[in-house]
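#onboarding

Welcome to the new folks! Below is a worked example of what a typical request in this channel looks like: someone posts a single protein sequence, and someone else replies with the predicted structure as tokens. Don't worry about understanding the tokens yet, we'll cover that in week two.

Example request:
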Amino acid sequence: MKDILLNIEALIFASEEGLTAMEIKQILQDGLMITINKDEVLTFLDQLKAKYASEDYVFALHTFNNKYQFLTKESYHDVLNQLQAHRDRKKLSQAGLETLAIIAYRQPITKLEVEQIRGVNCDYSIQRLLEKDLIKIVGKAESIGKPLLYATSDSFMNHFGINSVKDLPQLKDIINEENSIGEIIE
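Example response:
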């Protein structure tokens, strides 16, 4: 049993984007010929969560988008933010953030639709978002020319710590009366 736990721990540690319980089960069965069911995998994952909850470790086992992943504990975020500050090339421009927000809320969406909302060309912003793996191509639209459809990626979900786009703030949560123009008619 300890071998199974260690193998699951190694799989999660080596995985860049995290693994689902079903993926772990499948890898153990296919690669190591270990017969295990999903509930047993979940029990092992709970054991790992308990192990890494200890203060002896700088990271913990988290679940985002139904994938298990080791992430640094919150108490170390300040020092890691300093590291991130040195990676200026990773920053998104205002145009990039606007484009990402449009894609996140309207996905799947074509580049033309994004440009119609923003009112400017979005080639560069979309290219940068693809390079940073914050968005992905999810298919082609059925309209003339079959333009590419864009949606947020798993990296987007991980970066913002959400499980699905349903967890994004709703406009009613963001807009308040101070930001409104004109009279409110009831």
